[in-house]
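User: Hi! Is it possible to get a structure for several chains at once, not just one? Here's what I have:
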Amino acid sequence: MGQWAGYLQLILDGAVVTIKLTLMGSALALVMAFLAGLGRLSRFAPVRWLATAYIEFFRGTSIFVQLFWAYFVLPLFGFTLTPLQAGVLALGLNVGAYAAEVVRGAIKSIGKEQYEACTALNFNRWQGLRHVILPQAFVLMLPTFGNNAIELLKASAVVSLISLSDMTFQAQVVRAQTGSTLFPFLTILILYFAIACVISFAIRGLERHLTRGLDGIRS
Amino acid sequence: MEWDWAFVIQILPTLIEGAKITILATVLGYILAAVVGLAIAIVRRSKNKLVSRPMGFVAEFIRGTPLLVQLYFIFYVLPDLGLTLSPLVAGVIGLGLHYGTYTAEVYRAGIDNVARGQWEAAKACNLNAWQTWTQVVLPQALPPMIPALANYFIAMFKETPLLSAITVLELMNQARSIANYNYRYIEPITLVGAFFLIISLISVVGLRWLERRYGRID
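Assistant: Yes, the chains can be modeled jointly so their relative placement is included. Here is the combined structure:
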């Protein structure tokens, strides 16, 4: 039993890497989602095209290919990334593209009268977005953002293939050292599921917090 | 290091071999996902909570964990339990089970959208459960699901490179072995990316058409 404790420690070390990757990737994804999502709604056509190209490109190719491209091809152009940087970059940009569509959809779903109210209050575009539109749209985005964060957590397992020692990588190490297959893989499956549960629980809490006092106002 | 077209032409036949396996795995995996999803959706609707609750938990568990780890599980753990699968079969089962939990949600939403009156009408016509499903509910529930189901088909197609991790010789694995053998990464990996991008862009057009054709609920 003492032997397994050591291997469990190894897997927990990997879990820390996975959590770090998920948090940093989600942060990047959130920034990209708002940049590209708002970009698609821009008044300026070139900004719209740029945002559309980013979204279609990153949604159109596989995360796996993007990660390999970031890790193996970018160095040939002079950008050498550590596995962690390549992982965060690929995960953040990929999930950000999906989340950008969420941002766009939520903003477009805000009723016309809210925009008219902004005009009536003499807000400029930025003020209207900041004080009227986004506070309402953000609540609509949250549940899907939660799903996106879980997708990012799941996608983070592929970084084990560019030799970043995340949970999946450590499970492979344990398998190679002990020959046991059920223990490492079942353990990490449960850990991944636990992290996913924490994410959806946190998002639900945040949603409750943000919608407090809005019951009966929102339909 | 720059782009070398001669090298591209040299490696193209190998990549096409890989692309065939990629497409085969996607199609087989999707057929499995469609069947598994329907089974999960129907079991989850069961009135017996001892059946529907555990099924719901299993589906949530599969959806909350990475496909890559599930593939490892199928590929490495099952042989220890006495069930040895070829890499492609293990990959297809992994894809099918994982995406089955997604298609199950599509089926569930589609079935929930069938009006209550239709169920009551089926009962009034004295149809049994099988007849109710095959002749009343599914013919109405399926067409609006088609765009969402097609969407998961494309999503699954983009996940097939994961099969390379369990030694299936699909497109990504061929590209990696070419890259490692020749120590040239730029062409193989970029070509794989281009392949996925082109197929995805074409399928976006197809998806829009499906949405127009079947998506509206009247």
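Residues 2-210 of chain A form a domain with the MetI-like fold fold (CATH 1.10.3720.10). Chain A has one domain: 2-210.

User: Great, thank you!
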